[in-house]
Write a structure and sequence with these properties.
The chain has helices at 4-18, 21-46, 204-210, 242-263, 300-312, 323-327, 349-360, 396-401, and strands at residues 48-53, 57-59, 63-72, 78-85, 99-103, 108-116, 121-125, 128-133, 140-145, 149-154, 182-192, 214-220, 226-230, 268-274, 278-279, 282-283, 290-297, 339-344, 364-370, 389-393. By secondary structure, the protein is of the alpha/beta class.
Length: 403
C-alpha cells in the first residue's frame, strides 16, 4: 500500500499528541507488520529463478512453442504471483495470457504458449514482468527479469526442383567439389594445408621457408557464381498491391538462394538496400538506407546470414540510392561468366541500359518481374533487352513454374 507509511507517520503524531499508550501499541504493531512484509517480499523475490526457452529461428507460417518457467528456491511462500509476458503484435494469436499463481517453498511452475509466425522479421520476446505482494497486501513488488530474446522469422522459401538460369559458364548447373576452373599457370596466393588437399598443390619452396605445408591458390578462369539483385524501392513496383509485390520479391530472392546453395551447391550472393534493423513491426531508423552486398558463397552458414538479411529488409519509401546504381557497380563483385538475377517490379529504359551493361561485362543476366503477368504491364511498349531471359511472377505458383 502506497499510503501505509504516511498512515504510520500520522499515527505517530496522534500518539505523541495524546500520549495514549494504546496508540503507541498499535503504532509499534503496525510498524513491525510493515517492515516484516517488506523483508518478506525482498527475501522471497531474491529466490525466484526461471527462464524462457524457445527456438529462436523460424520460417513464415511456422508455429514456435515457448516454455516459460518460474521456480521458488527459497523457504518463504508466495501467496500470489502475477506473470505477464511482453510479446510483439506481429506474433499474436494464441499468445500468452496474464496469469496469477501461488508458489510454495521450493515450488515450481511452468507453462507453454505458441507464437504464430505470420510475417517475416526480427521480433523481441520478453521481458517477463512479475508482480507479487505479502499476505496482507501491505507491500507489493514488481520486477522484470528473463532478458528479452530475438526471434528471427525467415521469409517463405518455395522449393524449386530445377531452375534453369542463363549462364556463360559450362559448369553453372553442375555441382562440384571445387567452385571454378583454375589456371594452374597463375598462382595468386597460398594458404595453409588442410586435410584432403592433393599433394600436387603443395607449394614446396614456400613450405621450406615457413616450415609448414602451404597450398597454391590459382587464378580462377571461369566463375560459377550467382548474384541476386533485389529492388526494394516502392517506385520500382506497380502502385496497386505494391507492398504485397515487394514481399513476394523477397520470397523470390530467398527461394533462389535456397535452391542455389542447398540443391545445386553453388555460391550465391545478394545485393540490395537495408533500411535499418526490423524489430517486430517497427524499424529503427537511426541509420539511413544503405546498399549491402553479400559476396557469393555456398556454405549453409552463408545461407542463414542471407535469410536473416531478407528477414529484416523493408520497402524503401524515402529518397536513397537508385536501384539502377547498384546494377552499374563494378560487375557486382562477380567474375567473368557469373550470373546476375535482377528481381524488380517493372522494366524501363534505364533498366535496359543497366542489364546490357552487365552483359557487356561478361555476365549472364536474368530478369524476374514481380507483381505483373506480362513484361509490358505498367511500362507501355517496353521490350526486354536482347539476350536477357525475362520471367514474370505474380503469385507463388508462378514462382514454382520458374523451375
Amino acid at each position: 500500500m502506497r499510503y501505509f507509511p504516511p498512515f504510520l507517520l500520522l499515527l505517530l503524531l496522534v500518539a505523541l499528541f495524546f500520549r495514549v499508550e494504546f496508540f503507541f501499541t498499535v503504532l509499534y504493531f503496525l510498524a513491525a507488520v510493515y517492515f516484516l512484509a517488506r523483508l518478506w517480499m525482498r527475501q522471497a523475490t531474491k529466490q525466484l529463478r526461471g527462464g524462457r526457452q524457445f527456438t529462436d529461428r523460424a520460417f513464415t507460417d511456422d508455429r514456435v512453442s515457448v516454455r516459460l518457467s518460474v521456480r521458488n528456491e527459497g523457504w518463504l511462500p508466495l501467496l500470489w504471483l502475477e506473470i505477464d509476458e511482453t510479446l510483439p503484435l506481429g506474433l499474436r494469436a494464441a499468445a500468452f495470457e496474464r496469469q496469477v499463481i501461488a508458489l510454495a517453498p521450493r515450488g515450481y511452475w511452468e507453462t507453454t504458449y505458441t507464437l504464430n509466425c505470420y510475417r517475416r522479421g526480427r521480433y523481441q520476446i520478453g521481458p517477463t514482468t512479475l508482480r507479487t505482494g505479502d499476505p496482507l497486501g501491505i507491500a507489493r513488488q514488481e520486477l522484470r527479469w528473463s532478458e528479452p530474446r530475438d526471434l528471427v522469422v525467415y521469409p517463405r522459401v518455395v522449393p524449386l526442383e530445377r531452375l534453369g538460369l542463363p549462364t556463360r559458364s559450362p559448369l553453372a548447373t553442375l555441382p562440384a567439389s571445387t567452385p571454378l576452373f583454375e589456371d594452374s599457370s597463375r598462382i595468386v596466393s597460398v594458404r595453409n594445408y588442410q586435410r584432403g588437399d592433393p599433394l600436387r598443390r603443395v607449394h614446396w619452396p614456400a613450405t621450406a621457408r615457413t616450415g609448414q605445408l602451404v597450398i597454391k591458390q590459382y587464378q580462377p578462369a571461369i566463375a560459377r557464381e550467382t548474384a541476386v539483385c533485389l529492388d526494394l524501392h516502392e517506385d520500382g513496383y506497380a502502385t496497386r498491391f505494391r507492398y504485397d509485390a515487394i514481399e513476394l520479391a523477397i520470397v523470390v530472392a530467398a527461394s533462389l538462394a535456397n535452391h542455389a546453395i542447398v540443391r545445386e551447391g553453388l555460391p550465391l550472393g545478394l545485393v540490395t538496400h537495408l533500411a535499418g534493423a526490423k524489430t517486430g513491426q517497427s524499424i529503427r531508423t537511426s541509420e539511413a538506407p544503405r546498399a549491402i552486398a553479400l559476396a557469393p558463397r555456398k556454405e549453409r552458414a552463408h545461407l542463414i546470414h542471407l535469410l536473416e538479411t531478407l528477414a529484416e529488409v523493408e520497402m524503401l519509401t524515402e529518397t536513397t540510392e537508385p536501384f539502377i546504381a547498384l546494377l552499374r557497380r563494378d560487375r557486382l563483385g562477380l567474375s567473368w561468366g557469373g550470373t546476375v538475377v535482377v528481381v524488380t517490379g517493372r522494366g524501363g529504359a534505364a533498366l535496359t541500359d543497366a542489364l546490357l551493361g552487365l552483359r557487356r561485362g561478361g555476365l549472364a543476366v536474368a530478369l524476374i518481374l514481380v507483381g505483373v503477368t506480362r513484361p509490358t504491364d505498367g511500362t507501355g511498349d517496353w521490350a526486354a533487352p536482347p539476350g536477357v531471359a525475362v520471367h514474370c511472377v505474380n503469385t507463388v505458383r508462378d514462382l514454382e513454374s520458374l523451375a
